Amino acid sequence: MYGNRLVFEEINRDLGLMFRYSWSNSDAYGFVRQAEMRNVSDAAVSIEILDGIRNVLPSGVGRRFQLEFSTLVDGYKRTETDIRGRRGAYLVSGSLALAQGESADWLVVAEVEQDASRVRALMRDVAAPGIKDRVLADIASGTARLMRIVGETDGLQATADEPSVWRHFANTLFNAMRGGIPDHGYLVSRDDLGAYLGKTNSAVRARHAALLDALPASLRREDLMKWVQAVGDVDLERLAAEYLPLSFSRRHGDPSWPWNSFSIRLKDDQGQPMLNYRGNWRDIFQNWEALALSYPDFVEAMLFKFADSSTVDGYNPYRVLREGYEWELLDVEDDWANIGYGGDHQVIYLLRLLEVADRYRPGSLVPLLTRKVFTFADVPYRIRPYEDLLRDPRDTIDFDQAVNDAALERVRRIGSDGKAVLDADGALLRANLTEKLLIVALSKLSNFVPGGGIWMNTQRPEWNDANNALVGNGVSMVTLYYVRRYLWFLHGQLKASGVDEVEVSVPVAEFLRAVASAFESHLPVGKDAGADGERKALLDALGTAGAQYRASVYEPAGRGGHTTVTTTQLRAFISDVLRHADHTIAGNRREDGLYHSYNIMQVSPGGISVEHLTEMLEGQVAVLSCGLLGATEAADLLDALRASALYRADQNSYILYPDRDLPHFLDKNIVSEEDVGGSALLTAMLERGDARIVSRDVDGGIHFNPAFRNANYLDEALAALDEGDDGSLAAEDRSRVLNIYENVFEHASFTGRSETFYKYEGLGSIYWHMVSKLLLAVDEARLGALQSGASEAVVERLERHYAKIREGIGVHKSPAEYGAVPTDPYSHTPSFAGVQQPGMTGQVKQDLITRASEMGVVVKGGIIRFEPRIVRQQEFLETPASLTYVDLDGEVHTLALETGAMGFTLCQVPVVLHRGGAAGIVVSRRTWRITFGGLPSTGPTRRQSSSAPATFLASTSTSGLPTDSRHRLGCGHACTAGHPAPSSPRRGLISRNLVAVVGVPASR
Amino acid sequence: MYGNRLVFEEINRDLGLMFRYSWSNSDAYGFVRQAEMRNVSDAAVSIEILDGIRNVLPSGVGRRFQLEFSTLVDGYKRTETDIRGRRGAYLVSGSLALAQGESADWLVVAEVEQDASRVRALMRDVAAPGIKDRVLADIASGTARLMRIVGETDGLQATADEPSVWRHFANTLFNAMRGGIPDHGYLVSRDDLGAYLGKTNSAVRARHAALLDALPASLRREDLMKWVQAVGDVDLERLAAEYLPLSFSRRHGDPSWPWNSFSIRLKDDQGQPMLNYRGNWRDIFQNWEALALSYPDFVEAMLFKFADSSTVDGYNPYRVLREGYEWELLDVEDDWANIGYGGDHQVIYLLRLLEVADRYRPGSLVPLLTRKVFTFADVPYRIRPYEDLLRDPRDTIDFDQAVNDAALERVRRIGSDGKAVLDADGALLRANLTEKLLIVALSKLSNFVPGGGIWMNTQRPEWNDANNALVGNGVSMVTLYYVRRYLWFLHGQLKASGVDEVEVSVPVAEFLRAVASAFESHLPVGKDAGADGERKALLDALGTAGAQYRASVYEPAGRGGHTTVTTTQLRAFISDVLRHADHTIAGNRREDGLYHSYNIMQVSPGGISVEHLTEMLEGQVAVLSCGLLGATEAADLLDALRASALYRADQNSYILYPDRDLPHFLDKNIVSEEDVGGSALLTAMLERGDARIVSRDVDGGIHFNPAFRNANYLDEALAALDEGDDGSLAAEDRSRVLNIYENVFEHASFTGRSETFYKYEGLGSIYWHMVSKLLLAVDEARLGALQSGASEAVVERLERHYAKIREGIGVHKSPAEYGAVPTDPYSHTPSFAGVQQPGMTGQVKQDLITRASEMGVVVKGGIIRFEPRIVRQQEFLETPASLTYVDLDGEVHTLALETGAMGFTLCQVPVVLHRGGAAGIVVSRRTWRITFGGLPSTGPTRRQSSSAPATFLASTSTSGLPTDSRHRLGCGHACTAGHPAPSSPRRGLISRNLVAVVGVPASR
Questions:
Q1: What is the pLDDT of residue A617?
Q2: How many whole angstroms from its chain centre is CA B13?
Q3: What gap in Å lies between CA A350 and CA A373, rounded to an integer?
């Protein structure tokens, strides 16, 4: 079903023929189309066939050129049959006679960019006997490689629910295609590392060239990091820690957007395998989160990448590359170019990676909290002073060309590290993880609007592109919900760390002091209008603190100095902030039990008012995750959500915000007689038929000049009147007319795509990524409820919601209902059509995480537990089957599964769940290779394999695993070259070549 | 048949219905589709109809965005029926019952960019009775306006040959759409002139603001120029002389090329009529040549525009605008951006405008020869020194960013005049016409390759885009042919001028002296290889002279000083140059009687060799025009052309160069064993299988690395070997391997599109512009033969060629043979299809000129003669008809024509040819308006008209018209406000509202 093939099948009853086409990519032969034709009639059939390729493009014609100038391109075409100046075709024709039930098949094979030598070789190869077999064998070998990629990221499962199994396969594949996968597990190639260092910081590479050369050609990441520690160069340490030997990644995003052209490059120009990844910041880290569940030892690298590419003012550049990162430039020629920062991705993506680190490698963050190893991205954006943000919150960032140019000049000299921020002495500015995490929190808190959320004033929308126009006057409760969870996590880390004080830079300490003081000296402010003044007073204090901090750190001279803060201070600060945040969150509970997602703020001399927007799905997902809601509250919220306008019954799922009918063209841009009457200027101009500002139509309706695309245009037109006869009237009525304009168009509360768009995140459309985020949030709420000892009744309420949301996601929908084959994830379902855009969705990452949960896997404190409450009983096999999996040597194995079992892998270790019997874990191994109680100190090299049968060796209960599991989990992929002997049979769960068999109680 | 409508008609026999659709553009209602359905069966028919518009695009979606992102755009669509997120349609359906022969018709009308007021007004209008009539009336009024545009440029004719009449209509329309037409004849709007001065030179406008304001709102160009003379400001004079009040122009060129997006803008953003023109240099001047035949008084403006936008080094910028001109910038982002200069357009287009000025306004050039009024375009291209051109003739121009930026800064300060060159004192550098013409000639002559032609070394191909890759090693005989004609014309002008000496700048005088000395001190050099050394010696002298001149004038300090040269010196210089040129031309006669068009030169230490390329049509056109060939030689050449591989029998016309089969992919890039054996480097690398330079295929064939796109890539690869083990071998064999490469690929003689392209100017394609250039050249040869007293036999040979070439152009071809309706001109006819691209061809200009000749019109020395030798007898009417024409007031009239007559206009003056009887001219007038023997001193204002019948008043013979006809011809359009009394009845031919009737002898 999967593999590198697409299949199409149809039966033509009139012709009495079944047609079957499949498309594959062959490494050696190029694009292959297999055709099969079978006589399904009750008589013999004779057929004339014409098949082949049309419109052969000349070499070197780019996509854009072909799109725009296809007729011109035609003039250059020559197909060597010989067709000149026209769209050439290669067609073959023939006659076939098929007896009843007989079939015929053939291949059409085509390749591009072949030179003369290759063509000659192909001609000879094609002429030799057995070419069809060679083509098919090459496709099979490619398919096997693809299976291996999926298997190496735990994408192969075997259960009775085939749609779920294949959906999981697809999710795994697409997640890998976005974020990439490690090329050789935890093995690092010395040469690739050297090349990487050369491009990131050639000076570091040069300093350690001899040492690097002396490294083995291939070594485990763990051994690399030990070596790095021994060398003692902080930059080498940072770059090595950041190094991710990923392959199979492509630039992220939906290819229908203009900035998302991409290809997956696995080989360089010389045909050599190459390692690379690149993605939009807002996408790549989420796919890495799912990847980290299969490769937990790499989470440190992801965190380093994250931290090193964040800015001194608390944001992040647009795009992440294997070597460094990129920010967007001002480009007046490009309509899509824009500068600015998004915000909440940063908080939640960072937090989720931190949580993975903590769950899989407990304690691993502690040394980083105080280790001054991280750098900053020197993004040349300069957020303006607080007063400027208030004045025009949509135009808030200046581009510092000199900073930009200086950074690029440094890149030319030393590599991508040239983009890092320098301190006053010209050295790289460094910080520990605590400071990094604090800066993110403080930058958000400096935009805290009490009662409203976090002010979005950095020229880019937050996650939800549906509301892309909200930036400016919008305040995000979503961000506040995530900030709450983030701060609480930080609180817990600090508490558990045993650290008493941490070093931070003087400007950050000062920023912290000012923000803390602002929160201390103000009472929590509610959402009511009476509090507008207090609201503004607190925001003024916070915003001014932020501006002062930025003013310091935007100048190298202001970045100097360091001081310490105690963890006690920090924890007290967090507690104080949460008092304010929780007050605002509580105030944003709607009467229907949902929570507000985004609000609009309006600044006036009297203060700042907050208006609520419509209910949105995103806010429910975020508030469920924020840690504030109890189990019953969570279940109530989910009930309310089901009853809300966000529920779309025909798809049994949720839209992002209520669908609605937008006003028609003639119902817009209508100025009331009353408003006109109140303006002497408009009255006078209308009377004399001067249409520069407003005009009256034949039916008497009054409209603003349609040339005003926004209030700035109107303002310019009013300013132009100043010089004419209407000068004094125009000056007098300026703000009155601007107010009328805003009342007519409500630009301040214009949410963007959600008011103009009908696909993707548009009106009436289900955006599946968010639905799967909801599913994950419910899963977390469910686990939280279990942990907090909630009643069985409320746990079951949450579990029922989980099941219903999963059902809505549609793995078991009919193709007619889903709109496509439901084993593929799709981006969205518009109101008027089936699912759109296969694979192009962050949904895959969410579903990979919840799929592990559905298999009963719970990882916390470095311990894997099997918690089978939501293991789906219908997935236990009704007949014997087998699990195909890829072991740590990259070898493919098949494991027989009996009736009542199901199989999957965890870090490539096969796990078999059994229905019924007592809960328990049985760990088995291959007897020939491992002496139980102690692995050989040097194991077999990668690619060795054995077909020896597995035998059961030990069993244990589902609880009480040893607490030191970092090593066990982490070593999964790294132990191909050698492995310390495990101290207990239970370690075997995550050791190489072992098979774990887990008993699951019979269905509740 | 024409007008602003496109019509499609078909009969569906199965349905028994005739369908007729026509598309029109209505000013008031937008796009109109008229549908008609007629029952052509022999019974009643009932029909269900569904008709309307599909895929309505939202406002503001650009062409490129729709092309690339149509699916994304769909997501934003909302059609107010309401369809959301999909391609909306407005469809109406209905049932019709049509009796036999009955028909039904309806309109579909659509408009874009309507605001609410306009929609309301339209809704009311549509609801009112008679809307269909109003729409049709609006279309009719638009059609009438279009007819007027065509009529005002002499596009309306009435003969028995309707296809020729409508082809002429189309030619006129398309010529106007390219070059534009005067908006109100010779009338100049004071306000538009003021706006123009403000944008070209705000200082000039400011200096004369009061005087400008005092001008009448509208005045004749002639009166404007008198006023300008009186003011006495040389810049005002220049700008006023350059001023062309054109409308209806668009950027030139084929819209399938990426740089040619255009629209014809007749109104500005406020809906006000606007005057504008813009075009590529190489296109706009040719269309102006045809325009000048209807508006001869504007030829001076065209010449000023031409001269003022040429450079100090003798070239011209890429694009001409109403205000100034534009040069191309270096833009690494744009694959199509390129800097450089083309060459021979400049010579022949300038020459043809000069010839028109001389023929229509004899003596008008004389004052300009010595008047230092012209300026120079400060194009920031810097052609390198001569030695550099020799070294790499494809990379010869540097872009001087500082000069560019300074010019643009001056433009910001004062307007488009800021792009003019300054002298050492910062004042505008000025020159008289003699100096201007000399610079063009000298710049070409400094690249004269004896025996070969003019070296093309300024990074752009000459006219014939087919050979676009020839620039570099190519030398153009075509340019030399035109330079010959140009110099001879200059010689004649100087001789007839009565001027003894002219002032020129010191650098130009020095340039002249050096070039003259080079020609004097060398004998004419033939084309044989033995002369390679002499050839190089002369080119060295010429090229060095050019380089020294450029070195002077590229620096402001070097531009200073002036001196005089005598016209005797100049004429002697020209005679001496022609001795060399004619020797080279004679040597380029092929054995088959054709002449070479382009050659290839190769520089070696021993000299410069010249190799001939294949025969090409362009060279025959140019040599026919160059003035060297006698009538018999011309006729012989045309015979040879007919017998050559350039003749394409199926279309009875000529291709640009012989069609041929290009080698197949596997026949290219083959290195001989012998060549490899001669290189120790290649032998060694091949032996060890090192494929960086060459590789051997499975069949033993040897190929260069396909990554080498040209020799530079190979050279880089060889250089890279220098650092390796092959270092010494690579250094030793470098030039040997490069020679092998050049032998394999023959890049030096690669002609470009003519070897890769199958449409437009590609292989096997007829490029109609060139065929019509041939027709015009034959017409000129024919007239030359008559003038030189050639024998009747040879004149008739030329006339037969004229007729055959005209026949091949295809006005009377069947639509099947032509590939479209033959009354439309098309760009080209590929080998495999009918004509392509209606109207997009410079052919229209050539055909307008020859069409006048076909009507017997000959203008020379300011005299119109009727020379009826090639008047086509079949065009005389067989039944009475009428000529519609537009008079000088813009009024449409109809003139009755009897059997045996035909009608057309000359400068809007109707002319009627009569078959049979004695040769003669009868001039008639409208009796009510003009007292014969003297026009009223103030005539009626524009737009007045009369329906009074014309009566005959006088007659004269076809010869012996008075010699002072400048005024007569020139005043045609200018005399709307007032006119001096003509001194003789014969002046009436070109006076307003007169009708000329010309007798033509019976068919020979």
A1: 96
A2: 46
A3: 17
DSSP state of B838: E
Q: What is the DSSP string of A124-192?
A: HHHHSTTHHHHHHHHHHHHHHHHHHHHHTTT---B-S-HHHHHHHHHHHHHHHHHH-EEEEEEEEEHHH
pLDDT in tens, A839-867: 878 899 999 999 999 998 888 887 777 77
Q: Give the Cβ contact number of residue A16 at 10 Å.
A: 18
Six-digit token string for B316? 């011209």
* A667 reaches B (C-beta below 8 A): no
Q: φ, ψ for residue A786 (rounded to 5)?
A: -60, -45
pLDDT at position B488 is 97
Beta bridge partners of B95: B48
> Is residue B995 very low, low, confident or very high in pLDDT (cuts 50, 70, 90)?
low
Interatomic CA distance for residues B587 and B574, integer angstroms: 20
| Residue range A895-954, pLDDT digits in tens | 889 898 899 998 888 888 888 755 566 555 433 222 222 222 222 222 222 222 222 222
Spatial contact of A301 and A363, defined as CB atoms under 8 Å apart: no
Judged by average pLDDT, the poorest of A31-35, A258-262, A653-657 is: A258-262
Instruction: Count CB neighbours of A607 within 10 A.
Output: 19
**Model confidence at A118: pLDDT above 70:** yes
What percent of chain B has pLDDT above 90? 66
Tokens of B813: 């071809």
End-to-end CA distance of chain A: 33
Task: Enumerate the β-bridge partners of residue A341.
Answer: A459
- Look-up: residue for tokens 């817009």? A668
Nearest-10 crossing angle of helices B792-809, B631-643: 40
Residue found under tokens 């078999």: A912
pLDDT the model gives residue A339: 87
> Which residues from chain A sit within 8 angstroms of residue B74, using beta carbons?
759
DSSP, collapsed to helix, strand or coil, labels residue B97 as: strand
Best of A59, A77, A120, A667 to disrupt the B interface (most B CBs within 10 Å) is A120
Candidates A269, A93, A293; CA nearest to A181 is A293
The pLDDT of residue A970? 29
Q: Which sign does the torsion angle of CA A753, A758, A762, A768 carry? A: negative
B750-780 pLDDT per residue, tens: 777 788 889 888 999 999 999 999 999 999 9
CB contact under 8 A, B758 and A85: yes
- pLDDT above 70 covers a percentage of chain A that reads 88
Q: Do B85 and A121 touch (CB under 8 A)?
A: no
Q: In a 3-state reduction of DSSP, which class is residue B741?
A: helix
Place of tokens 């192909």: A122
Average pLDDT over residues A252-266: 66
Size of interface A-B (CB pairs under 8 A): 146
Average of pLDDT values for B697-715?
93
Contact B822, B163 (CB under 8 A): yes
Answer whether A764 sits within 8 Å of B84, measured CB to CB.
Answer: yes
Q: Does B336 touch chain A (CB under 8 A)?
A: no
Contact B697 A71 (CB under 8 A): no
Q: What is the mean pLDDT of residues A697-715?
A: 93
The answer to whether residue B833 neighbours chain A at the CB level (below 8 Å) is: yes
Interface contact A77, partner B, CB < 8 A:
yes
**Cα–Cα distance between B773 and B778 in angstroms, integer?**
9
A336 and chain B in contact, CB less than 8 A: no
Mean pLDDT of A391-399: 93
Give the residue from B496, B484, B501 showing the smallest Cα distance to B576. B484
Measure Cα distances from B102 to B49, B94, B97, B106 in Å: 16, 17, 9, 14
What's the half-sphere exposure (Cβ side, CA atoms, 13 Å) at B38?
A: 8
B11 close contact with A: CB closer than 8 A:
no
